[in-house]
């Protein structure tokens, strides 16, 4: 088993985008750097302010996730599929040191002896508790020291065309902010897996908004056929797998107006969906049989009622919310049972971004403006998805809603490069994961920050994964 394959099999959430020191960040040059274009049209000072805000927001969230539990909970491994929380904390600082202080700033290493400990490709998650990791207090001090130096570096970094490939358009700073927020989502998954007392639900977070005029919300929308622009060449902090912009032609299709709800999924369960081999891909059926699956992760039936555990609190399954914690195989089986299918990645993006009036592809379903609390459920604000049909201001021109936030949405597509793909900042960032082994998820979830969520953003994972904040919607041919 190769190193990369071993790492891949232990992956949850975002681990492929952990920026590994196995790949030297000082060697960003040559064809990869030359082919990665930054055509944002945003002035450097605006980008500098955005980078500062993004870095500060990420650190505030990291602090919340790590200060909400004691040192014993930080150093414990709550699942062999996840790292101890203290590993994520120091890893965040280590990657920031390598890419910002060393690669961009040309500074000497602060703690070169810990690089190997926090190399995500070198150590699978199950083995990380056995490493001589930094203790919580030391990890906090290290991450804080790195952050202070990084903010000083940001003040004078050349973010215009005269800067190096990592500096132009503030890419390295945006990349690090996204990396930290991705680990924050990974840590939130760990909090969901923890068996200890609730740490994030006291005081209770505000409830997401309820739908208005719910009875008028259509069950599906028609997305017209024809060409559209997929991907981006202009988003300054888009990752290599989102690039370049290119034309795709998609036939007309119908798409669920909202993600599939818990109530709809319950009908699949009650119709013996987990006991009928007809609906399952062979690998999915083997998974169901091997693990005795009968419902989404964290669900259980007790005294005639379906319950779920959410961040340490047991509550009735909310039938109007999008179903959560289902694998690709479960999503695919439900779609087959319903006489439908999962949308392809191209179909999902056309429904989310294409404006048939202007012919443009928008940054977000609602337009080019950044997300707001009225448009999407992002940033751990509510610690749960909103009911299906919420956020009417976030609907796309196709009429589909909640395409950004709430739940990651499984698509039918394998994770593959776009035509003209150029690896940056190194091929292991995305390229080694291309192929039929990983399925694409789109749209983000309530656990994603807006810096790491946009209409072109691509997540990917193994089709067996259930603890990630994933749901789905279905489609059918027109």
UniProtKB/TrEMBL annotation:
Functional note: Catalyzes the oxidative sulfurization of hercynine (N-alpha,N-alpha,N-alpha-trimethyl-L-histidine) into hercynyl-gamma-L-glutamyl-L-cysteine sulfoxide, a step in the biosynthesis pathway of ergothioneine.
Name of the protein in question: Hercynine oxygenase
All copies of domain Sulfatase-modifying factor enzyme-like, residue ranges: 218-476
Pfam family, any one: DinB_2
Catalyzed chemical reaction(s): gamma-L-glutamyl-L-cysteine + hercynine + O2 = gamma-L-glutamyl-hercynylcysteine S-oxide + H2O
Pathway annotation from the record: Amino-acid biosynthesis; ergothioneine biosynthesis
Keyword Plastid among UniProt keywords: no
Keywords, ordered alphabetically: Iron, Metal-binding, Monooxygenase, Oxidoreductase
Region listing for Disordered, in residue ranges: 1-26, 198-219
Segments forming domain DinB-like: 55-187
The EC number(s) this enzyme carries: 1.14.99.50
Record-stated family: Belongs to the EgtB family.
UniProt biased composition (Basic and acidic residues): 1-20
Residues that coordinate or bind Fe cation: 91, 179, 183
InterPro entries documented for this protein: CTDL_fold, DinB-like, DinB/YfiT-like, EgtB, EgtB_Actinobacteria, Sulfatase_Mod_Factor_Kinase, SUMF_dom, SUMF_sf
Source organism of the structure: Streptomyces rubiginosohelvolus
Residues where gamma-L-glutamyl-L-cysteine binds: 125-128, 461, 465
Cofactor(s) needed for function: Fe(2+)
Gene3D superfamilies on file: dinb family like domain, paralog of FGE (formylglycine-generating enzyme)
Gene: egtB
């Amino acid at each position: 088993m190769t190193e990369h394959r071993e790492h891949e099999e232990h992956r949850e959430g975002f681990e492929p985008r952990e920026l590994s020191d196995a790949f030297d960040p000082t060697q960003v040059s040559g064809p990869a750097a030359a082919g990665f274009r930054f055509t944002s049209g945003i002035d450097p000072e605006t980008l500098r302010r955005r980078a500062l805000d993004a870095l500060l927001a990420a650190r505030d969230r990291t602090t919340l996730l790590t200060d909400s539990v004691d040192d014993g909970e930080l150093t414990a491994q709550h699942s062999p599929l996840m790292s101890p929380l203290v590993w994520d904390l120091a890893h965040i600082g280590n990657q920031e040191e390598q890419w910002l202080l060393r690669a961009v700033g040309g500074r000497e290493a602060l703690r070169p002896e810990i690089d190997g400990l926090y190399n995500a490709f070198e150590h699978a998650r199950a083995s990380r508790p056995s490493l001589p990791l930094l203790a919580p207090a030391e990890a906090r001090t290290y991450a804080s020291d790195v952050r202070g130096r990084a903010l000083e570096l940001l003040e004078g970094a050349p973010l215009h065309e005269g800067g190096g490939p990592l500096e132009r358009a503030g890419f390295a700073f945006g990349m690090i902010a996204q990396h930290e927020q991705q680990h924050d989502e990974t840590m939130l998954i760990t909090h969901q897996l923890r068996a200890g007392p609730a740490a994030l639900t006291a005081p209770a977070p505000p409830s997401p908004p309820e739908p208005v005029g719910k009875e008028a919300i259509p069950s599906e929308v028609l997305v017209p056929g024809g060409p559209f622009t997929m991907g981006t060449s202009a988003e300054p902090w888009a990752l290599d797998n989102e690039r370049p912009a290119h034309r795709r032609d998609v036939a007309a299709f119908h798409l669920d107006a909202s993600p599939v709800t818990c109530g709809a999924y319950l009908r699949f369960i009650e119709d013996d969906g987990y006991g009928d081999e007809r609906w399952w891909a062979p690998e999915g059926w083997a998974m169901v049989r091997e693990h005795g699956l009968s419902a989404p992760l964290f669900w259980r039936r007790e005294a005639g009622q379906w319950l779920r555990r959410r961040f340490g609190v047991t509550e009735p399954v909310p039938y109007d919310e999008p179903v959560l914690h289902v694998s690709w195989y479960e999503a695919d089986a439900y779609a087959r049972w319903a006489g439908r299918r999962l949308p392809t990645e191209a179909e999902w993006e056309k429904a989310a971004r294409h404006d048939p009036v202007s012919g443009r592809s928008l940054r977000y379903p609602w337009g080019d403006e950044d997300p707001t609390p009225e448009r999407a459920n992002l940033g751990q604000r509510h610690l749960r998805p909103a009911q299906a049909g919420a956020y009417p201001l976030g609907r796309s021109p196709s009429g589909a809603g909640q395409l950004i936030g709430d739940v990651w949405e499984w698509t039918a597509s394998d994770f593959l490069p776009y035509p003209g793909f150029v690896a940056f900042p190194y091929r292991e960032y995305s390229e080694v994961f291309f192929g039929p082994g990983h399925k694409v998820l789109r749209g983000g979830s309530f656990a994603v920050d807006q810096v790491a969520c946009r209409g072109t953003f691509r997540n990917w994972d193994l089709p067996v994964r259930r603890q990630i904040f994933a749901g789905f919607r279905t489609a059918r041919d027109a």
